[in-house]
Batch of 4 targets.
Target 1
Amino acid sequence: MSSHDIAADLRAEAADLDAADPLRSLRDRYLTPEGTDLVAYFDGNSLGRPVAAAAEQLQSFVAGPWGDRLIRSWDEQWLDWPTRIGDRIGELVLGAGPGQTFVGDSTTVLLYKLSRAAVDAQVARGRDEIVLDTDNFPTDRYVLEGIAAERGLTLRWIEADERAGVTLEQVRAVVGPKTALAVFSHVAYRSGFIADGAGITAAVREAGGLVLWDLSHTGGSVPVQFDEWGVDLAVGCTYKYLNGGPGAPAWAYVAQRHHGTLRQPIWGWIGRRDAFQMGPGYDPADGLRSFISGTPPILAMVPLQASLDVIAEAGIEAIRAKSVALTEFVIRLADDLLAPLGVEIASPRDSSIRGGHVTLRRNGFREITATLWTQGVIPDYRDPDGIRIGVAPLSTSFDEVVVGMLALRDTIVEFDAADGPRS
């Protein structure tokens, strides 16, 4: 069968899959400007496409609560946005009851605030070890290294498999009476491996430690049940599968049982019991508000709300089903089209432990990624030799997957013809 025939058959199969997709109508809610050079977008796990309604809602925001009501909007609505939108994220994607999730700051800042609050409370109990893994996202590792240096704590490293991730058995072997805090990513940023959230949380808590999960590659793609699992703390960004936009504010979860006992280290005026008293000394507010520091990024929350409307309409279980179908399709095409060219699957093949992206490995992928970008095919590259195919369930079509994977195949062939076959 010719290359043309293979492409035609795959496009026809993709058309059938798109027609049968129960979420197909929601793809039109995402902006793809006329005249764009975009052919296939495989980076929704780094930056989600904008919801089309976000532009209209931003215009309405400027003309309405900002332009018309001006500073009165703080009293009328804005001061409640961090917790109100946080509650919605908790309900839609985290399995978390109200009053435990808020929006504000970056993921890095929230990770620092929650981690530092946790270890400060635990050091008083004679616990001075932080458990983390070698393959966690760099920011997570750097923040924890900084906290350990600040507080004179010991880091207990778990050697994680770059093609998989941290396992329950590894965690059980490390946690103990000295464990203050354990921090892991629920979905590994490199491989897409889904950690055992319930089991690892239980293991850390049974050892007397607190656990903090980073859900940056989970939220809006893989369902979780924070309250049911007994999670202590969590953070996550909103610009990936939550489509909040570049630099959109992150969210943080603090279980109800820790309110009033954990004290975060950045004492700002919004987190004070009576913020507008402007009085001397810091007296933390009750509940979740004590974890908020400075003025909330209100304008940046507008696109996030537009995205949450679409997620609410779809439902997280349906989103997950579409994600699994897309990644299964990516793996099948990789096996058929790319394996003969030396490409390996570097993500779990079992969908029950695979998140929303598939990582492929081969030498030359750094250069090949750069070439694909010039063609309007947009994956991302991660060392060592990895291309991540990030398919966003609400905005990616099966046809887009076929077009992008065929382009990847052709680019590899051209690369090998120019530079010699893969050794």
Target 2
Amino acid sequence: MEARFDLMANPLGAKIAKRIYNVALAIVQSPLSETIQNLVMLRASQINGCGFCVDYHTKDATAVGETAVRLNLVAAWRESTVFTEAERAALALTEEGTRIADAHPGVSDETWARVREHYDDDQIAALVSLIAMINANNRLNVIVRNPGGSYEPGRFAELAG
């Protein structure tokens, strides 16, 4: 499988990608834990069928010590015992925030209440922004058909700044 279009080879595409990456840096530097960030990005990417992003976020999570068992169970988190209540709340918010176009009623009051139990306002700002941004990234990569499999952790560090 080959990508339809290389956004990074196009000057405008590269300019946009750099700005998206800088938004991602603000989220990375937030008080939202790296573990939650990795789980959220992986789950949204699975739902959206983005092979590139599933590859990317699985490898980045592994590079910082996430276990294969937990990564393998993200898609079935409701039927798994390896996630904390805070992680479950974030994964529920991710699914409800991602599936809006699937005639989902949006984020339920129950899910929002669980998120409020586990996260402060800064963490929620980061979490909501992360869900929006990973969905945007998934769509960019699915539209141009970027294939998964060749990502190396740290590949996009040059975009910072």
Target 3
Amino acid sequence: MSSRDLEARHLETLDRDLGRVSHLELATAYVARPMVGPGISAVFVVLAGLAAALVLGETPHTAIVILAAGFGAYMALNIGANDVANNMGPAVGANALTMGGAILIAAVFESAGALLAGGDVVSTIAKGIIAPTSMQDAQTFVWAMMAALLSSALWVNLATWIGAPVSTTHSVVGGVMGVGIAAAGVSAVDWATMGTIAASWVVSPILGGAVAAGFLWFIKSNIIYQPDKIAAARRWVPVLVGIMAGTFAAYLALKGLKHVVKISLGSAIGIGGAIGLLTWLTMIPVIRRQSEGLENRNKSLKLLFGIPLVVSAALLSFAHGANDVANAVGPLAAIVHASQTGSFTDAINIPAWVMIIGAFGISFGLFLFGPKLIRMVGSQITKLNPMRAFCVALSAAITVIVASWLGLPVSSTHIAVGGVFGVGFFREWDTERRLRRARVAIPDRPPLAPEERRRRKLVRRSHFLTIVAAWVITVPAAATLSAIVFLGMRLMIG
């Protein structure tokens, strides 16, 4: 055998060996992929505990605060995985944003909202759900808040795993209620407050769905079903964008920036009206330029709603970061305050380092686990396009403003998902209405078979039932879990 043949055989053997190694590397990467997210999450939780230790230094209560910081980081990760999907899901489902773009925008604006406009003053035991005097001492209070924080995070984690967007605020409320009952009995709970929270389960999605359906009806009637769609869009899209800008200005003034400057509801509406009018006038020439040369069809209309939809998703994320994050890390702030001062009956300000844990945890949770719920909200409940997704985003802001005016406690999660349901059910109703008109115009046309009618349903009933069931049981499930965790902790510490 010549030297050339030997060299060729060696190269062939080397190629086979390298092929085996590359296959092994691919197989290892495939097997290890599901562990990347939990691994990074575990590192973040540990780093949060170390950060708490560095901030506090050597104190008698450092170990408890380190443990609480880990629980708070775990809760923040779950907020990012579950709650943020409500803001970004419609934009992704409508193809106005890619998944990567949505995650980047949400991470930036959620963190900005939490750090710049967050830091809410949290009442001692999660907004008066249980009476402060029902707690025996500061140590009991600390372990109660610890159990509430851990149990609410576990419940949101479970909901994310089964694909159900739930309210993290309601999870915290349920956790606090459960430990209150376990620590001091049923009489410790303010049942009037719990009644208003339970009412929001119904009020939030119905209001959100009705407002979103109303705007979709307006867009269909005044733009989509018009003979000259482009001319109608030039008339009405600037108006709709102006309404969006004004609503979000009022929303951010009232809710997102309330920690920077106090603004009354009337002043917020006045600010929103002025910005809405200015935006409407500005958008008239912009939409005219964008619509030049567009064909007279629905696909052209999607281009005109794309940028407003992306802006609305970013603003929703900012307002969410400013509000819901504070509620979620509130128990951690309460633990820090009670550990350092021994008092648990005063109002509690959230320290900056606690808000940083919340902001970074949301970003990591969204990046690692958020796509599942974003797809659920954006495309698996009903099919969305930019016009429908725009109606959902606008509905979320308007419903919060109306609910604040009426004094109703509402959930941003329930409003956004209710808006998606409202859009889907309106499309079903509108399709049925048009079919009935077609049958009247063509009497000989055969009716659809029951199987075909079920197939044409535009809202997936299985997802609808799963989500509604998760909403209903969130507070009692988190309460039960927190009571069990609290009793277990009390047994462990004697």
Target 4
Amino acid sequence: MTEQTSPTDFRSPFMREAQARGFLFQCTDAEALDAAMLAGPVTGYIGFDPTADSLHVGSATQIMLLRLLQKHGHRPVALLGGGTAKIGDPSFREEARSLMSDDTIAKNIAGIEGSLRQMMTFGEGPSDAVLANNADWLDKLSYIELLREVGVHFSVNRMLSFDSVRSRLEREQGLTFLEFNYSILQSFDFRELNRRYGVTLQMGGSDQWGNIVSGIDLVRRTDSKQVFGLTAPLLTTASGAKMGKSAKGAVWLSAAKLPVFEYWQFWRNTEDADVGRFLKLFSDLPIEECDRLGALEGASINEAKKILATEATALCHGRAAAEEAEETARKVFEAGTTATALPTRTLPRADLEAGLPAFRIFTEAGLATSNGEARRLIRGGGARVNDVQIKDEGQIVSLADAVDGSIKLSSGKKHHILVQPV
């Protein structure tokens, strides 16, 4: 099994485009997978454990891989880990995840499903996406049956060699036996999906390589079938920051957790060196156009960033919402007006009628994580109320400052919130 893919003259449209867009990192047998895709539709899956009620931008690469599979006539399966979430994937984590209740898992699954349905076409057609939940089979497993039928095929020595396991064993907390079973259950998923849906390809981030290889080995040993594994690189920005995080926290795909405007702004703030690469990964624009836009310099690269922001937001939230976010940004940053589509924060009417010190309203609105940070923001000249700089951290801000029922607060040039009474 090959570890990392090298430039290859693939023949299947999926493999050619996946490589050209930067999705390919590792593949167990790239040439055989390429041939299988030429021979007929391939069914491939990616698993998403419901650790929160939304996925974040770090998961967008995986969804885009499933979209690309569907684009080229293959069938994607999005596997929700309702069963594996009860254990938690320990891969490259510093400590064990907190165990979740069944109600929390169900709530998280509902939230994630919304984003998946927005970004892929589900249905009964040959290339329509399938939504599965591994709780459907893992919850029914007998432990003795699992040990006898599946556990016998796993070498503890080999499992201990995985980077994801070694990194935990070297830490103070170590790895619980509960978490150690995760790889076995993920391998069981691959075999079960192969039997139920004919899945022959598992995809994921490069941190899943060990788990994917284990699943391939289990299918080969128990069912004598050839299946494949493919991973995408774990993305970082040009400056080395991990994708999926911003200065304000996780960049969620759900509009209920992150306003569409802020999602658009995340992409608009992409570093210059990342524009072309991210256009290939997170938009449907032709590769040649992505290269052209990514090569722009000076003020022109800012226009390319707006295109990236709108295209990436359209895939996640729909074209209309993306264009509204773009227009909001134009009004706020270019025309200097207050736009109603800015993210809003409600505060008690009584507090706003009485008035709050400037440092406190910035904290309450979420533009600062503490009163101390808000004070430093104001002292540094980065705080504005209705586009007017605040110089006194104790200045009272009240409903008397409202314009059309809202008070516009700004932190620097990029973060804006409308405060409204409730």
